[in-house]
Amino acid sequence: MESKRLALVVVIVGAALGTVSGLVWLIGSRNPDTPAGYVGYQIQGAVFGRAKFHGLQPGPGSPGRTWLVSVVNISVTPYTYTEEFKDRDDVLAKDNLKLSFRIHVTFRIHPDRVQEFVEKYSTIQKGDEGEKIVKDAYSNFVREPVRTYARDEVQKLDDLLVKDNLTPIGTAITDRLKGLTGDTPFDVRSV
User: Fold this and answer.
1) What pTM was estimated for this model as a whole?
2) Which of 42, 91, 122, 124 has the fewest Cβ atoms nearer than 10 Å?
C-alpha cells in the first residue's frame, strides 16, 4: 500500500514539475520571424550571464520556437539617399560660380555579411527596426564622405562644364566610394 502511495506521489510531483517546466519553456521561448528582403540577426538571451549571437536567418523564415531567441531584422534591399547642395550648401565651381545640385546614392548591406555589419557598423537599441539601423549606418559612415567627394568633383570644373560631365563626375564619386568602402559589408554607389 505504501509503495502505491509513494508511486502516486512520484507521479504527481513528476507531472507538476513537467507542467511547470513546460510553462517556463513556453514563456521563455519565441518564434521570431524575418520577412522577405531582410536577414535576421538572432540573439540568444540568457537567464544568467550574457546574451550572445545565435545565428543569421534569411527572410522569409523563422527558426521555430526557440528558447530566449530574439531577432533584429536588417534590410538587405538597396536604399537610395539624396544629398542636396543648395542654399547654404552651394558648391563653388572652378570659375567661382555657385552651383546647386543633388546627388543620389544607393546603399546596400551584403546579405552574407549581416553579422559583421551589425557587430562593427551599427548601433542597435531595443526596438530599433532594420530601416533605422541601415539609415544610421549610412549617416555615420557614408554621408559625409559622399558629400565631400561630390564637392571635390564639382569644384574641379567650370560651371558650364558640369552639365556635360555628369557621368564622369558620378563615376569618379563611385570610384572614390569603392575605395572608402573597400572590404566593408555594404556597397555604396553614386547614381
Assistant:
1) 0.76
2) 124
